[in-house]
Amino acid sequence: MVATCIGYDKAKNFYEKFLIWLYIFIWFGFAISYTFRYAFRKNGNYEILFFEEKRIECLSKNPGKCFKITYLCDENISFYSGKVHCFKYTKENFVNFEILNDILSLNSIASKIKNGMIECDYELIYFLKITKDIANISNTLTNNRFRNLLLTLKCLKAVENNNIIKLFHALIFIDIFSLNSYKKVQLDFKQIFDSCFANKIHFSIKNNLISAILNINMMKYVWYDGNLLFLENCKEKYDTSLFDEHIPYKNLLVNSYKVFCTLENILKNSYTFNSLKILLKIINIKAFIINNYLDLNSIPDIEHKFLILSMNIFESIIISYIDDFSSLFLYRLNGALKKDIEFLRFKNLSISKNNLDRFLRQRKLRGFLLGDVDYIDFFPYIELCMHLNDTLEYIFFRNVSIDINWWMDFLLRAKIHTIILSFDNSSLQESFIKAFIIQMCFKNVLYFDCTFCNLILTIDFCNSLSCWRNLKNLKLKGYETNEKTEIYLLKAIEGMKNLVYLTIGSYKIPPRFYNISLQKQKIKVLQLKNYSSRKKPLLVDLYSHFNKLTKLVLTKITISFSTMNEIFRLENLTSLSLKLCIVEPIGNLNHCIRSSRNLYMLNFYATDLKVISHLNIFETLELIEYLNLSCCNLPMGYLAKICTVSSSKLKKLSYGLGILDSNDLDAIKYFETLEELNLFGCVFHGTSFHKLDSMCKFFKSLRKLDLWLVKICMKDLKYLINFKYLKRMRLTPTGLDLLAVKNYLVLIPICRFEIDCISQEKTYDEFLKCLYEDPIYIVNTHKFRNISTVDSAKKYSGINFSDRRRGLDWGKASMCVNERAKMQKSPTFIKKQAISQADGVKVLKKIIINLCFGRRNGIRRTDNKHK
Q1: Which own/partner pairs from 820-823 qualify as long-range (CB within 8 Å, at least 24 positions apart)?
Q2: Contact of 289 with 252, CB cutoff 8 Å
Q3: How are beta strands 115-120 and 67-72 bridged, if at all?
């Protein structure tokens, strides 16, 4: 009996101590887990063998978050003795991993690795097996298992492709099926993506997870720079200007009323609703955009619940292109919005006083944006928005009529730091100018961007501007100064000691503007644009004390010898654009360019570089990724100069209206990372596009190809099949059999196709019918073959002319495009040698340059249809 009591006391003491230690572990966040160790060995260049070691029990504070890889370069066969082979990885895996692929690659540094060790606190082999074959997925799916899968994809760097989406698709389908059958709790993405773990997972993996959920619901969508766009057709166009850089959230765009109704239907499913609510918030999609809701008056009256807004995750609402008869829809939309949204934007719509009042009432907005908004009934704007002046930090007004009293109160009380204004007529800007001159207290403003309508700056305006001493970003466009006001404007700019970004666009910038002393300022980005249409643009002299510049943009400026020297002496310069400029004859620049090694973007669009074509300005520029040499009047063979230094970095090359020979093609084919190639209007002299041959290095990287107004043959079309990942293409198959063209185009994996200059009317419909059967979005430019309208010329010319209100006659632009089209189709053009064709292109280039500079030489109006 005594022995029994003693044994009982010992057991009791042990149990109490165990509970105490368990309580301590729980208190400090520790848990008992297993450590899994896997050895791997490279077997030739085709596979990696994995071996499992004995599991080790250990104490872990963060179970499910440990992953460590150790590499060994020597082959030690005894290292694998006693270990069980459990998995074989090859490049044919359903989901590929960059780390493992690099080990198998012959050209990578990691190929020297022979074996290694992976240590983690979960069963890695299970997840490797399901990434090899989806059929290995078990019927039980828990939060921990899903988290471990995400960790595997992250640590082994899963290759980005649709297979990851398909894997998630299968997992979510199993979760939904088990939820309906026997499981009571679904995957909790809020618990899976806790605050620490969510930051470790790459953005693309989260996007793929959302894509899988949308695919299950058969929703049409695209991703654009982290923004999610719901469309009727994945290939349709969308307005990226709705994405505002000053709103610190990513966007969810619903591009039509029909898509909105579809979205409402899929959100009725609680699984989809809860999952999207959590995942959208995790990837910072908190701006909701309603766009293109037209003809609402013809749609049956449906009282929507606005389920997407009931998620309560959106801090910004943007409403654009809503039908004039949409008052009821806007009324219901406002009722579904939460009261504490931060940003509200209206664009391209008509709105009544009552609806605007409902949206603004009881809301304290941080940002308010109005663009091209018409008021259905006239009302004093000041009454609706006066209460916003205490909270507003950001405004964007475009062509909005606002009373001077509101401007006075706004400039006096608002804690504003970002102001963006744009005026298309002088009457709209008058009230702002008056208030701006009177009210001179702007301590909080950091960003001021204003596009005027032919405004002549006054001394009073410049004096008021001088009060903006804390500005970091100043953009003034569409104004003109005289000798007196110019001095005051320069003093105002010189007083802004924190200025980093400066953009000036004027109709008359005197030469002395460029002589201002800015050596004490911190300007990193400088953009100067001359709107003047006079024959001789301004001379620019940039002095060497601009050594902090990282980006320089000059438009319609004459570049002198000293200017070019100073530009290429800017050691920190990474981006340089000389658009529509004139370069004076200069000497040797090589000694200057050696200082500009950091340049990664060069844009010489429509700048005549013939006078410096004998110089190799690319000799030391090894980091160039984006290069635009379109309309630059360069000689044949010029591209060979950039081959040796930029072949491994160049991603985008534009060489529109150029002349290419075999030397140029030999240079182009070695750009192994090229993603976009623009050869619009080019003439091939003694060669053709297909002669890039099998040595071309960018078969897998090219995504966009422009061969508009380029004479091609059937061999060129056949050659296009080699570009396996091509997504967008423009083509002019003049003189070719359309049915034969169709046979090649259906083999190219493009999703957006633009075609022009069709001459075979009978086969054209059949040609389109065959292409429409594939998932290709076709832009039919056939009807614009004889361009005679302003919009057609602007959309299909391929030339980024200045805006019409800046003095460009779009009738001239349409004549320019017609001239090129006629030249391309004429028998003389086809029969003559390439050198004669090049002469025709030179004439066209002169026309383009004359148009851009507002010259009238060589342009004659033949009739009134181009007006």
Answers
A1: 820/681, 820/709, 820/844, 821/709, 821/757, 821/785, 821/786, 821/787
A2: yes
A3: antiparallel
- Whole-angstrom CA distances from 619 to 596, 640, 644 are 10, 11, 9
Question: Tokens representing 433?
Answer: 């100018």
Other Cβ atoms less than 10 A from the Cβ of 863: the count is 8
Helix (H, G, I), strand (E, B) or coil at 478: strand
Q: Are 34 and 56 in contact (CB under 8 A)?
A: yes
Tokens of residue 199, six digits:
């930051």
* DSSP string of 277-301, one letter each residue: HHHHHHTTEEEEEEEEE--GGGS--
Spatial separation of the C-alpha atoms in residues 763 and 75, rounded to whole Å: 65
E strand map for 769-824: 777-780
Distance of CA 609 to the CA centre of its chain: 30
Q: How far apart are CA 131 and CA 149, in angstroms?
A: 9
Distance of CA 502 to the CA centre of its chain: 23
Nearest one of 331, 344, 245 to 288, comparing CA atoms:
344
Length of the chain: 867
Tell me the one-letter amino acid at 534: R
Integer Cα distance of 351 and 344 in angstroms: 14
- Report the share of the chain in percent with pLDDT over 70: 72
Spatial neighbors of 423 by CB under 8 A, at least 6 apart, are 399, 429, 432, 451, 452, 453, 478
**Residues near 47 by beta carbon (within 8 Å), at least 6 away in sequence:** 88, 89, 90, 104
Predicted confidence (pLDDT) per residue in 319-372, tens digit = 998 876 577 888 889 999 999 999 999 998 888 888 888 898 888 899 999 998
How many whole angstroms separate alpha carbon 548 and alpha carbon 522?
A: 7
Q: What are the residues facing 601 on neighbouring strands? A: 575, 626
What is the mean predicted confidence (pLDDT) over 134-151? 88
- In the chain, the amino acid numbered 133 is D
Instruction: Give the C-alpha separation, 614 to 74, whole Å.
Output: 53
**800 contacts 631 by C-beta, under 8 angstroms:** no
Per the rule left: phi > 0, alpha: psi between -120 and 50, beta: everything else, 337 is beta
Whether 707 shows a pLDDT value over 80: the answer reads yes
Burial class, 429, CB count within 10 angstroms (exposed 0-12 / middle 13-18 / buried 19+): buried
CA–centroid distance for 375 within its chain: 33
pTM, 2 dp: 0.81
Check if the beta carbon of residue 400 is closer than 8 Å to that of residue 429. no
- Contact by Cβ (8 Å): 603, 628: yes
- Distance CA(376)–CA(672), nearest Å, equals 56
- The amino acid occupying position 217 is N
- Domain spans of the chain, in order of start: 42-54+64-114+125-266, 392-498, 790-852
